[in-house]
Specification:
- The structure is a single chain.
- By secondary structure, the chain is α+β, with helices and mostly antiparallel strands.
- It contains four helices and eleven strands; from the N terminus they run ααβββββββββαββα.
- The chain has a four-stranded antiparallel beta sheet, with no helix packed on it. Strands 2-6-5 form a three-stranded antiparallel beta sheet, with no helix packed on it.
- The longest helix has 19 residues.
- The chain is elongated.
- The two termini are about 30 Å apart.
């Protein structure tokens, strides 16, 4: 989760001991965390054993979880029968932005799959940042708090497109809930583009 429940409750002025809406608030945090990952085309949370698959003829591997801390291994797959075969680690470079693994030569050809196993991503709020790891940027955590606060404060209006007459409100379930402009400004800074 991109923010902690207690932080969101403090922002909303809800006492820590008041647990009436904890499930609702947690569902907002989970929904928004997933939405922001999708908006940014990446996975935010840290994993020591993340894997990323790519076409084996690529020189630049644009992983979905970064910053990259370490690379553990590379594997190659030509058929389902043979499965993944660990390769001798090729020469590689983690570029300056720590978001792309640059190979000196491709692992294989375009008809094969490559896989890299690596440690990367952000340590989410509430976690302990270890050596070489990076905490989730505070502006992302705060954007999550602000958006969830907005949803909570307007929870009875979510999904409404209009209100009229004696028939009540009309909802539009196909339209995703809009993100606040200040949240979108932060999200755009963390978007991940792939080739």
């Amino acid at each position: 989760m991109l923010c902690e429940l207690l932080t969101l409750k403090k922002r909303l002025g809800i006492a820590e001991a008041d647990v009436v809406d904890d499930d609702l608030l947690t569902s907002f945090i989970n929904a928004l965390s997933g939405r922001l990952a999708k908006e940014c085309n990446r996975t935010f949370d840290y994993s020591a054993t993340a894997t990323y698959d790519f076409r084996a003829d690529e020189f630049n591997v644009v992983v979905d979880r970064y910053p990259i801390v370490t690379v553990t291994s590379f594997s190659l797959k030509e058929t389902e029968t043979d499965g993944w075969v660990v390769q001798t680690t090729p020469d590689y470079l983690i570029n300056e932005t720590r978001s792309i693994i640059e190979l000196s030569s491709p692992l294989g050809n375009s008809r094969q799959l490559g896989r890299v196993t690596f440690a990367g991503g952000y340590v989410l709020p509430g976690g302990t940042v270890g050596a070489g790891q990076t905490a989730l940027p505070s502006e992302l955590a705060q954007a999550c708090v602000e958006q969830c606060s907005y949803w909570y404060q307007r929870r009875n209006e979510l999904g409404l497109t209009s209100v009229g007459g004696t028939s009540g409100s009309i909802g539009n379930p196909d339209k995703p809930l809009a993100l606040l402009p200040q949240v979108m400004a932060v999200v755009r800074k963390y978007e991940r583009w792939r080739n």
